[in-house]
Amino acid sequence: MNEQAVMKRLQEAGIDSPRFEAMQLCRALSGEALAHAVERRCAGYPLQYILGEWDFYRETYEVSEDCLIPRADTELLVEKAVQNLPTGARFLDLCTGSGCVAISTLCARPDTTAVAVDLFAATLELAGRNRGRNGVTQRLELVQADVLLPPDGRFERASWDAILSNPPYIRTQVVPTLQREVGYEPRAALDGGHDGLAFYRAILDGWHTLLKPGGSFFFEIGYDQGEALAALAAERGYTATVYRDLGGNDRVVHIRK
């Protein structure tokens, strides 16, 4: 199959960006492997998982069904952390997935160190490989823990400058209605409870003791969650600044102690 034939096949299957995806597939694969990949993509299997890697911020990441696919919208979270972390910062990245938020922040800020947390061993193994390929192994520790529970003794209290997180934030009842590609991504990385706010509450209420005085939270949020996060912050005596993405949607909130 040549690129034109791949594009036509993807177009017929209703793929949104057939020219771009055909170019990506033809660049990475050939022969039977390409034909098989095209059929999988036409059936809705994500391009990123087929390719096995994806660009995010200034880095490239290994991706698989063990992690959420890194998205351009999340780059705003990294951008705000890079701009606002103090010199020599030590930060946590909760629900790290592929590790892209922590790793890209560390790459852009070589003065910083971090600990990345996830619930699943296979996901942390993937983050570990991404840590190595992007050269931050010495500055990023990986810890397996449940973010919905308060932190245990492995995490030193009042010693962190910031907590970053792109947690699951989609309402439970909405998850089954998402586009077919999302159905291949880990549900645990998507489902934020009945109102989509379960992880934000758990982090604000359970993990705040880890922050230094003046420390802050940086969260990615859903397009319609800015007001809800500002309210959660206010209820706890915090101030919140909501940033919008290039599409004009709420995307990142910076909450200060």
Write the layout of secondary structure elements.
Elements: H1 3-12, H2 18-28, H3 31-42, H4 47-51, E1 53-56, E2 59-62, H5 75-84, E3 90-94, H6 100-108, E4 113-118, H7 121-133, E5 140-144, E6 160-165, H8 198-206, E7 211-220, H9 226-235, E8 239-244, E9 250-256
Parallel strand pairs: 3-4, 3-6, 4-5, 6-7
Antiparallel strand pairs: 1-2, 7-9, 8-9
Helix pairs in contact: 1-2, 5-6
Distance between termini?
57 Å
Number of strands: 9
Report the top-level CATH class of the largest domain: Alpha Beta
Categorize the overall geometry: globular
Which series of helices and strands comes N to C? HHHHEEHEHEHEEHEHEE
Q: How are strands sequenced across the largest beta sheet?
A: 5-4-3-6-7-9-8
Query: Please, what is the oligomeric state?
Result: single chain
Report the mean per-residue pLDDT as an integer. Answer: 97
* Strand content range: 15-25%
Share of residues in helices: 25-40%
Low-confidence stretches: none
Structural class comes to alpha/beta
Q: Using the 3D structure, state the CATH architecture of the largest domain.
A: 3-Layer(aba) Sandwich
